[in-house]
């Protein structure tokens, strides 16, 4: 019984507490004290609101500051910024309206009058907005800077491999498509080997062919189409003057982008499957060995019967500058560009004053082949010679090979020494197959005439440039005759090239 009473009292107390806790707040509104408190809360909220407005002001100022600085300093945001800018500019007629709208957002609704502090902020803000609205002029400069930044070229890839542009020289041959098809077909990476076509002459049809490659190639145009000065007695060589001017401009332009190497190709060249691999495999040698100044894809004596087709990996050093698909470094261009000639640049470059005993690397089997005969260089030479130069068909993994045998010290120690260990034979013995032993042989020459006569009989190129026979290294010309390696070589005590032999 007693416990039931206690239970009832406890139950009552619990219910009472429950009622007080849940129903009291509902009637609280009637208590004057609470009314005061609520008013207080509202005031506090208002104050908070004002503070929030101040913060918003500050945020707006910050935001405008950020926008402005972004706009003036940050290239990647260019287009976005520009869009904003032009939007603002297009509304420039109702500048005031717009400003007002922006400002009205800042005004604390409860306060008509701004406190000095707020006023200053408003003024700051206004000034900033004004600046933003008035920058289209500065924007142009910025935009230009941004465009420049956007076109800043990549000269090294992520793996630190160099980007090596292929600079194709074009004028008015629409058959350039053959050259470009080939270059694109074998290109292992468009990123590493951007193809830049430089056009002179402004021929519309050729230009359209180049443009039809869209993003595969980049077209640049030689801007100086003024009539070129040619001395009266050289009138017929005007084309060579234009070529020299074109080369000078295009190389200057391309190297100015920061590339370390450039491969030069003419619009009438086909390239071999390992064309890029060849230049990629040899580019380091140009940096390592200061006696090297070019890598050429061309073998002047590259006719099928004069080469060893079973050794497409074979490379040589040569004192003769072959051109026809060749690579040079920026350092070399810096040296040559300041004294670049007005015409006949290839003969000029071969002169001792330019060459300074430097040599090129050339392959046993050409990595380029010329298909064009219409143009500045004469068609006869093409028909008689150039068309028979064999284009290599195999892919040689040059980048995976040890090519240090081509460095001067290694090469001179082996190649030069070996050549003079081979037995001397006469052209007659060779022709009549009277040589009993296997292996390479040497034919000696000691005069210009003997050289000329012998090369003509063997089907080799017989000319000299600045006294250097084509493909020669220290006067030695290497070729194949009836599957035998033959070296046409001067005496052991050779003293150097004779300019008068040209
Ligand atoms: C750029 O603005 C400045 C004043 O800030 C003015 O003197 C100049 O003429 C403007 N330039 C152009 C190209 O509008
Ligand atoms: C290349 O540019 C350099 C530096 O601007 C200049 O000195 C040189 O004459 C230019 N060379 C050619 C061939 O345009
Ligand atoms: C590359 O060849 C040279 C000789 O031309 C040799 O001295 C060198 O050890 C070789 N390097 C490698 C990594 O095989």
UniProtKB/TrEMBL annotation:
Catalytic activity: N(4)-(alpha-D-Man-(1->3)-[alpha-D-Man-(1->3)-[alpha-D-Man-(1->6)]-alpha-D-Man-(1->6)]-beta-D-Man-(1->4)-beta-D-GlcNAc-(1->4)-beta-D-GlcNAc)-L-asparaginyl-[protein] (N-glucan mannose isomer 5A1,2) + UDP-N-acetyl-alpha-D-glucosamine = N(4)-{beta-D-GlcNAc-(1->2)-alpha-D-Man-(1->3)-[alpha-D-Man-(1->3)-[alpha-D-Man-(1->6)]-alpha-D-Man-(1->6)]-beta-D-Man-(1->4)-beta-D-GlcNAc-(1->4)-beta-D-GlcNAc}-L-asparaginyl-[protein] + UDP + H(+)
GO molecular function: alpha-1,3-mannosylglycoprotein 2-beta-N-acetylglucosaminyltransferase activity; manganese ion binding
Keyword field: Cytoplasm, Disulfide bond, Glycosyltransferase, Golgi apparatus, Manganese, Membrane, Metal-binding, Signal-anchor, Transferase, Transmembrane, Transmembrane helix
Subcellular localization, as worded in the UniProt entry: Cytoplasm, Perinuclear region; Golgi apparatus membrane
Keyword Transmembrane helix recorded: yes
Cofactor(s) the record lists: Mn(2+)
Pathway: Protein modification; protein glycosylation
EC number: 2.4.1.101
Annotated protein name in UniProt: Alpha-1,3-mannosyl-glycoprotein 2-beta-N-acetylglucosaminyltransferase
Organism encoding this protein: Musca domestica
Name of the gene: 101890826
């Amino acid at each position: 019984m007693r416990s039931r009473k206690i239970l009832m009292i406890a139950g009552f107390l619990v219910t009472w507490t429950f009622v007080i806790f849940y129903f009291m707040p509902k009637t609280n509104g009637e208590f004057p004290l609470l009314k005061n408190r609520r008013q207080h809360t509202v005031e506090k909220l208002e104050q908070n609101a004002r503070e929030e407005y101040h913060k918003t002001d500050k945020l707006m100022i910050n935001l405008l500051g950020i926008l402005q600085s972004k706009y003036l300093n940050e290239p990647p945001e260019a287009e976005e910024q520009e869009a904003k800018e032009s939007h603002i500019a297009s509304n420039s007629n109702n500048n005031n309206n717009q400003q007002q709208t922006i400002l009205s957002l800042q005004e604390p609704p409860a306060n008509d009058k701004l406190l000095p502090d707020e006023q200053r902020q408003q003024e700051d803000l206004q000034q900033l907005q004004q600046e933003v609205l008035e920058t289209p002029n500065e924007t142009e400069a910025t935009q230009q800077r941004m465009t420049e930044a956007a076109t800043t070229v990549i000269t090294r890839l992520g793996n630190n491999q160099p980007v090596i542009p292929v600079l194709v020289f074009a004028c008015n041959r629409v058959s350039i498509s053959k050259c470009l098809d080939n270059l694109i077909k074998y290109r292992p990476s468009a990123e590493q080997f951007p193809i830049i076509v430089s056009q002179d002459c402004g021929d519309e049809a050729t230009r359209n062919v180049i443009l039809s490659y869209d993003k595969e190639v980049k077209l640049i145009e030689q801007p100086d189409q003024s009539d070129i000065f040619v001395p009266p007695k050289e009138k017929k060589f005007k084309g060579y003057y234009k070529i020299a001017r074109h080369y000078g401009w295009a190389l200057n332009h391309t190297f100015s982008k920061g590339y370390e190497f450039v491969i030069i190709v003419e619009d009438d060249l086909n390239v071999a499957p390992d064309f890029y691999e060849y230049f990629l495999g040899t580019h380091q040698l140009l940096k390592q060995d200061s006696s090297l100044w070019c890598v050429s894809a061309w073998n002047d004596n590259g006719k099928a019967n004069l080469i060893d087709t079973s050794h497409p990996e074979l490379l040589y050093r040569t004192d003769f500058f072959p051109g026809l698909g060749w690579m040079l470094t920026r350092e070399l261009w810096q040296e040559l560009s300041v004294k670049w000639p007005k015409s006949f640049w290839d003969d000029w470059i071969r002169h001792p004053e330019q060459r300074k005993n430097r040599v090129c690397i050339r392959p046993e089997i050409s990595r380029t082949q010329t298909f064009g005969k219409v143009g500045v260089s004469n068609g006869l030479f093409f028909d008689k010679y150039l068309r028979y130069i064999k284009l290599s068909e195999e892919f040689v993994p040059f980048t995976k090979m040890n090519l240090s045998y081509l460095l001067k010290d290694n090469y001179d120690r082996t190649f030069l020494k070996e050549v003079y260990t081979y037995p001397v034979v006469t052209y007659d013995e060779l022709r009549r197959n009277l040589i009993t032993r296997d292996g390479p042989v040497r034919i000696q020459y000691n005069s210009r005439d003997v050289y000329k006569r012998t090369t003509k009989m063997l089907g080799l190129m017989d000319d000299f440039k600045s006294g250097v026979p084509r493909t020669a290294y220290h006067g030695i010309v290497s070729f194949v005759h009836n599957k035998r390696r033959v070296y046409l070589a001067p005496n052991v005590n050779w003293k150097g090239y004779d300019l008068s032999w040209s």
